Amino acid sequence: MKKIDLRSDTVTQPTDDMRKAMAAAEVGDDVFGEDPSVNRLQERMAGLLGKEQALFVASGTMGNLVSILTHTRPGDEVILEAQSHPFHYEFAGAAAFGGVQFFPVPGNHGILDAEDVAPAIRPDDGHHSPTRLICLENTHNRGGGKVYPLEKIERIRALAEQHHLVMHMDGARLFNATVATGIPPADYCAPFDSVSVCLSKGLGCPVGSVIAGPADWVKEARRFRKRLGGGMRQAGILAAAGLYALDHHIDQLAEDHRRAKQLANALSQIPLFEFTPSSVETNIIVLPIHDPETTPAEVVSKLQNEGVLCVPFGPREIRLVTHLGITDGDVARVIEIFNKLFAGQT
What phi, psi does 3 have (nearest 5°)? Predict the structure, then answer.
């Protein structure tokens, strides 16, 4: 039985052509700055994101951690959304390695307004940790893949400038946002002092993320990357996958979004999961379970027995994510299985 894996877009496998590009990569020692494939990826990403320089790192978690450490000092405070990836899924790295405190602010499906952020900015006195950084996530994972409206980001940027704060974007799925809106990556990144973009989610690479910002900031970030063990030597084999993905996999994200919306429209007709399918904007479906007697673990287990993999996503929800490895036939099969298992359940 074929497994249809909707747990995450991190489960993507490198395509045959991506593997060929990796095998043929020209490499050198990246710690010495001598890996030509890494250098090409960094230059390409800096230009694409509208920043002076970029730095290849091992993961999205490392990218966010290096960025936060570079922007802050021990005792500083970072404002972020209460369901954000750095707060939920990054093992308190900023606190453990940087002595940095998070101030989580509840948003609307992961999206904050300037009016939400303003009360979290600390007064400048001796009783409070100094607010240093605002971190926004685009698209927002726990918000169901919500796209951050650019006008909201720009209003938060104006507030940050008023209080002399810096801003970082956790743009793990930034290209999903740009494909969904048509807004160029550089425009989305312009309000931010730094940005982290993941290559190993929707773009289908096996490993890696890129962070970008001003040249002096990237120079300091490189030191933090080294301190965290992120000097990867002949990393061009991995960077070549990123270069290939930039050329061949960005447009594919539109197909991921189309399939997610097709799946959401069908599943919204099942009373057990009734929800508004228009809430699905990109490739993530957060599916609420209305029957209080049915747990997410039970739903996930029944689907797994039929070859469909997904994950519990809170006390009353499951998550499904479309990606490079999911076909139209897979979507049709998933719809068939959901109807078989749950259409008669309320």
Answer: -90, 130
> What's the domain count of the chain?
2
Residues spanned by the domain of 230: 14-248
Whether the Cβ atoms of residue 114 and residue 159 lie closer than 8 Å to each other: yes
* 205 pLDDT higher than 80: yes
- Whichever domain contains 237, its CATH number is 3.40.640.10
Residue 209 near residue 60, CB atoms below 8 Å: yes
pLDDT at 345 over 80: no
Cα dihedral 48, 49, 52, 58 sign: negative
Structure tokens at 184: 């160029």
Written as one letter, the residue type at 127 is H
pLDDT at 244: 98
Roughly what angle, to the nearest 10 degrees, separates helices 36-49 and 236-248?
Answer: 40
Rounded CA gap, 343 and 294, in Å? Answer: 14
CATH number for the domain spanning 284: value is: 3.90.1150.10
Q: What's residue 346's pLDDT?
A: 61
Neighbours of 122 (CB within 10 A): 16
